[in-house]
């Protein structure tokens, strides 16, 4: 949150949204998906 200059609650809301969109229950599932799709560069 500090790196992106947004509130922590914003980050939590965005994570919840991603979990729902990708039908995941854990953040780790999204991280694995990002690695599988080779999308890490989007989060640097």
Task: Describe this protein's structure.
The longest helix is centred in the N-terminal third of the chain and has 14 residues, at 8-21. This protein has one domain (8-43). The chain has helices at residues 8-21, 27-36. The chain contains 2 helices and no strands. The chain is mainly α. It is flat.
TL;DR of this structure?
This is HTH luxR-type domain-containing protein. The protein has helices at 8-21, 27-36.
The shape, in one word, is: flat
Mean pLDDT value: 91
Structural class: mainly alpha
Structural domain tally: 1
Rg from Cα: 11 Å
N- to C-terminal distance: 13 Å
**Overall number of strands:** 0
* Percent range of helical residues: 40-55%
Unreliable sequence segments: none
| Largest β-sheet summary | none
Order of helices and strands: HH
Number of helices: 2
Strand content: under 5%
Question: Keywords, please?
Answer:
44 residues, mainly alpha, 0% strand, HTH luxR-type domain-containing protein
Q: What secondary-structure arrangement, pairings included, does this model have?
A:
Layout: H1 8-21, H2 27-36
